[in-house]
Amino acid sequence: MSSYAARPCRWRLGRVLQHSQSECVGHSFSRYSKIIKSGSVTTMKNTEEEAQQPMKGAEIVIRTLEKLGVETIFAYPGGQSIELHQALGKSSLRVILPRHEQGGAFAADGFARISGRTGVCMATSGPGATNLITGIADAYMDSIPVVFITGQVGAQFIGKNAFQETDIIGVTRPVVKHSYLVLSVDDIPRIICEAFKLASEGRPGPVVVDIPKNVQQAMGVPVFPEEVKVKSLSSGLSVKSSDIEAIRKAIKKAQRPCIYAGGGIISSGASEELREFAHSYNIPVTTTLMGLGSFPEEDPLSLRWLGMHGTYYANYAANECDLLIALGARFDDRVTGPVATFAQDAYIIHVDIDVSEINKNKRADLGVIADVKEVLAELNKKPLRKDYTEWLNQIAQWKQEHPFSYIKSKPHTPPQPQFVIEKLYELTHGDAVIVPGVGQHQMWSAQFYKYKNPRQFLTSGGLGSMGFGLPAAMGAKVACPEKTVINIDGDGSFQMNIQELGTLYAEGIDVKMIILNNQHLGMVAQWEDRFYGSRHCNTILEDKDKQYYPDFVTIARGYKIPGRVVCEREEVEDAIREMLAAKGPFLIDCHTGYQEHVLPMIAPGKCYKDMILE
To answer: CB-based contacts of 366: which residues, under 8 Å, 6+ apart?
Structure first.
């Protein structure tokens, strides 16, 4: 049996459906396996041995993962998942043991964000499963494909408040794309395959598979499907020629066009198509935080990113254009402010693969439900280039007058966060993968490091989960060991999953860490400064003697990870060079002090004309 939430909108309705041949769309498994694992394509045909040899349900789960091309799983054991871990012990999968289930969830998320492959995370029932919820919600908000496998008490105990029982299907229903409760060992191969297909198809998202212990222990002869059949609203979507002509007609009329690109560009693999479209049509591009890197930020047509802490010129261009082309974006409130005043005089085109996003937050004059990569590919066949001289000159003036900037501090003073990130950008030549936590440091990481490639800035955008940075960077480095992965964090956010230092050491995961340590919950403190008369209520983290606390370098050394404290700006460059040269993980604790605010800023409820610049 599968627990399935019908999906006319993203909020789960909780309706249970049985899949049937008539309501399913068939998908070739060999085609699908390319999504799971680039390169070799596996098939689901049973080997002769498998066709005759009974296996435990737990072994069937792991064998199915192997056949799907999964190589890495982030898994924390417990009483109701011990069978799965015993099966993992005999498998080819690399099992990474996080020090907390939430760390494992974020690590699987980071793995998926950087690679585009589906991440896999496993936990036991009850507290193990509930510890995954923030990571599940984070993947849901940012449309990240992750399959979460949870152990469950035996089916005979479900609903009886058994030891470590939690209805994880019910608890996660609002924040999953789909969920399954497996009640028969014979259903395991099909359900696992469907879970992966659903997680990655169309608009990606998390899928939960809950497996009772008696099903894990039951014996069965696995029948691996050669074809994966799932019901999906995105199946069979195709680009309509009438939509392409309508977009071209709107562009032909426009005098001040602007492209607004979101995370859908990255998840659909449409970055190259976006670059070709922008250049061949000569239209400037702004991105969301989730879309950073989808368009090179040093490109003359780049407006960088817009929203509450985005560039002055991106916010003005998006709001004063006469044509706004939204591509794989969802008109988030941190972008639009009051929706009634956002781009109020523009003709709005909204392209998205998820029908529920069209007109959800902002009315579109033209809604196009399709894969944005395919839409751009069609538009690129017949470019319609105009000069837009007056418009582009206006944008150039905004760029010159209002770049991202800050007032540089005097020599031999604490390093400013912006300076640290600028120096990091210089020393890494803009090639590092940056994974921030959530807070002021997250915004500065987006402002002062210039991104040129998709999947280069991995951030918790929709949920804004403190504690995301370290474990997500860990997962990213596991997925792409050849890349330089740097966790830029705040002292508050870093402490929420600090225990994952143990995973870095034990697994030899070479993540570099920079803590911009201002002894405050900086973003909340900034709001207190701006809107609450600087009354800091529970946002100061220093000890009673106003000393820096805790000693992060000593903690790192306790986990056998080297580190260095930086107290003056003159020390920054040498410290970063030492970090980058280190073989293995390394931590820099930058004592920045609390003086800086993230600017510009559009206050809640205000529009772009009310932007705070200093």
So the answer is: 243, 246, 247, 250, 347, 348, 349, 350
101 catalytic residue (yes or no):
yes
pLDDT, one tens digit per residue, over 456-508 is 999 999 999 999 999 999 999 999 999 999 999 999 999 999 999 999 999 99
pTM to 2 decimal places: 0.92
Residues whose CB is less than 8 angstroms from the CB of residue 179 and which lie 6 or more positions away in sequence, other chains included? 2, 3, 4, 5, 169, 172, 173, 207, 208, 209, 210
pLDDT at 51: 61
Token pair, residue 125, equals: 């029932």
What's the pLDDT at 50? 59
Tens-digit pLDDT profile for residues 37-88: 332 334 466 665 656 789 999 999 999 999 999 999 999 999 999 999 999 9
Parallel/antiparallel/unpaired status of strands 72-75 and 94-96: parallel
3-state secondary structure 387-445: CCHHHHHHHHHHHHHCCCCCCCCCCCCCCCHHHHHHHHHHHHCCCCEEEECCCHHHHHH
CA distance 271 to 267: 9
Helix, strand, coil: what percent of the chain each, to 5?
40, 15, 45
Tell me if residue 400 is catalytic. no
SS (H, E, C) 15-74: CCCCCCHHHCEEEEHHHHHHHHCCCCCCCCCCCHHHHHCCEEHHHHHHHHHHHCCCCEEE
Report whether 552 contacts 586 (CB < 8 A): no
Question: Which helix (DSSP H) or strand (DSSP E) does residue 586 occupy?
Answer: strand 586-591
Distances (CA, A) of 527 to 50, 126, 533, 597, 610: 60, 37, 9, 9, 16
Token readout for 418 is: 């912006």
Q: Rounded to whole angstroms, how far apart are CA atoms 105 and 122?
A: 8
First to last CA, the chain: 58
Residues present in the chain in total: 614
The yes-or-no answer on residue 423 being catalytic is no
290 is catalytic: no
Q: Stretch 113-142: mean pLDDT, rounded?
A: 98
Q: Which amino acid is present at 466?
A: M
Secondary structure of residue 564 in the 3-state scheme: strand
Catalytic residue among 86, 164, 394, 499: 164
Whether 213 is catalytic: yes
Rg for the chain, CA atoms, rounded: 25
Measure the CA–CA gap between 601 and 612, rounded to whole angstroms. 5
| SS3 track for 268-301 | CCCHHHHHHHHHHHCCCEEECCCCCCCCCCCCCC
314 near 290, Cβ under 8 Å? no
Of the candidates 449, 601, 598, the residue with the CA atom closest to the CA atom of residue 522: 598
**Cα separation, 498 vs 556, whole angstroms:** 9
The one-letter amino acid at 318: A
Pairing of strands 146-152, 178-181: unpaired
Confidence (pLDDT) at 82: 98
DSSP 183-245: --GGGHHHHHHHHHHHHHSSS---EEEEEEHHHHH-EE-----SEEEE--TTTT----HHHHH
Q: Which of 1, 23, 156, 163 is an active site residue?
A: 163
Catalytic residue among 29, 67, 74, 101: 101
